[in-house]
Design a protein that fits this description.
It is a single chain. This protein is an alpha/beta fold and about 400 residues long. The protein contains 15 helices and 16 strands. A hairpin with a 2-residue loop joins β12 and β13. The protein is globular and about 70 Å long.
Length: about 400
């Protein structure tokens, strides 16, 4: 039976997208593995590889022997010089990174801020950073999108930051501002949701369909939920905002904030860095300092925050029944010295008397950046042919 030309083209483009997603999310794969994974014949895989190579999205190399007679199957890998720019504005710093289609971070900038950055200031900083990288690190790269991970309530479809209280942004058209400054398509989303997406696709919750992700940063505690393998946003995009729930105290002496304070007021990065004397510390610096400190006041503060966090996680587990709980940011630093003890503290408070697996974010400091980049890659992964046509205009090294 013949296939209508229009239908054949749709099928071809859909298969190109499936193949690109496979090598982007799975890493380099042999043609033989792609044939098995995608359920296509060898000649079709060869044609798709050639087309994606022509578009500059994949590269093919000689493969290693796979235990079979004959020539090794060639390996197909996503090209590292196809990149998305990931941005994470916080109250104390802005982090910008160039993340390749191979999922590696190829360039990074962390700009310490002494005052809260405005949406307009963020757009200028992103544009200046990209312009600088185009003359150096990204001179030969194709930049296909910008993804911005914001600690606040976002309307992703509109690129609007409705309310980011710690940054003091309200109804800010961040996507439009950055796109106008850079000339690059821009997406905006909640930072913790991006972290949940990244950990589900590539990190500690890879392959797990029901996940609670909690992210701790300078702006507070956010969260993301993966339910049935799907990132859950909620009716208004607020799903997972655990930090705004009231803190639960088994010992009233653990309270430091006011009677009506939220979880993020007592489990708080600022309290940790103040105790350590490390203002402006990165996650890695904070983690190292907590692991090495013998200061009794710091140790007591860590234990206090762990107790409160365990109660909060147990409450979430009782409601959502996840298979895995992933902790990122300063929350990971709080827990990683004894994950088993923390999981036991959670289990004591759950209705079943047991806890799901508690894991530290596998992507570390890259988790929000990888998640933001993934949304910036979304259009490309959905339609490689349609997306790559206008990319040439974004690879011009002349600043936007």
């Amino acid at each position: 039976m013949s296939v209508a030309p229009g239908t054949a083209e749709l099928v071809r483009r859909a298969n190109l997208a499936r193949m690109l997603v496979a090598v982007h999310r799975g890493g380099p794969l042999s043609r033989a593995a792609l044939t098995a994974e995608l359920g296509l014949n060898r000649s079709t895989i060869g044609a798709l590889t050639a087309e994606l190579s022509r578009l500059g999205l994949v590269a093919e190399t000689a493969g290693a022997a796979e235990g079979r007679i004959g020539r090794p199957s060639p390996m197909v890998a996503a090209r590292p010089d196809v990149v998305a720019i990931a941005v994470n504005p916080e109250v104390d710093a802005v982090t910008i990174a160039a993340v390749g289609l191979d999922r590696r971070v190829h360039a990074r900038r962390r700009e310490i801020t002494t005052a809260l950055i405005s949406p307009e200031g963020l757009a200028e900083l992103v544009a200046a950073t990209i312009a600088g990288w185009r003359g150096n690190e990204l001179a030969a790269a194709s930049v296909v999108g910008v993804g911005i991970a914001v600690p606040g309530l976002v309307q992703p479809a509109d690129g609007l930051v409705v309310h980011a209280p710690h940054l003091r942004w309200t109804d800010a058209p961040v996507a439009d501002l950055v796109a106008a400054a850079t000339g690059i398509p821009t997406t905006v989303g909640n930072d913790a949701s991006y972290g949940a997406l990244a950990e589900h696709l590539f990190g500690s919750a890879r392959g797990v369909d029901d996940v609670i992700y909690l992210n701790g940063g300078a702006s507070g505690i956010g969260g993301g939920l993966v339910v049935g393998g799907v990132l859950a946003g909620g009716a208004r995009g607020l799903a997972g905002e655990f930090g705004h729930n009231p803190a639960v105290f088994e010992d009233a002496a653990d309270r430091r904030a006011g009677e009506r304070a939220a979880l993020e007021d007592d489990v708080n990065q600022h309290r940790l860095v103040t105790a350590l004397g490390l203002p402006g510390a990165t996650d890695a610096e904070l983690r190292t300092a907590l692991n090495e400190t013998a200061n009794p006041a710091v140790v007591d503060e860590v234990r206090r925050q762990r107790r409160i966090l365990a109660a909060a996680v147990a409450g979430a587990v009782n409601i959502l029944d996840p298979a895995v709980v992933v902790l990122g940011g300063f929350l990971a630093a709080l827990v990683e010295t004894d994950v088993d003890e923390f999981a036991a503290a959670v289990a004591r408070r759950t209705i079943a008397g047991s806890a799901p697996m508690v894991r530290i974010a596998g992507l570390g400091d890259d988790r929000l950046l990888v998640g933001a980049a993934e949304t910036a890659f979304a259009a490309l992964l959905a339609d490689p042919v349609g997306t790559m046509a206008p990319v040439a205009s974004t690879t011009d090294p002349t600043p936007a």
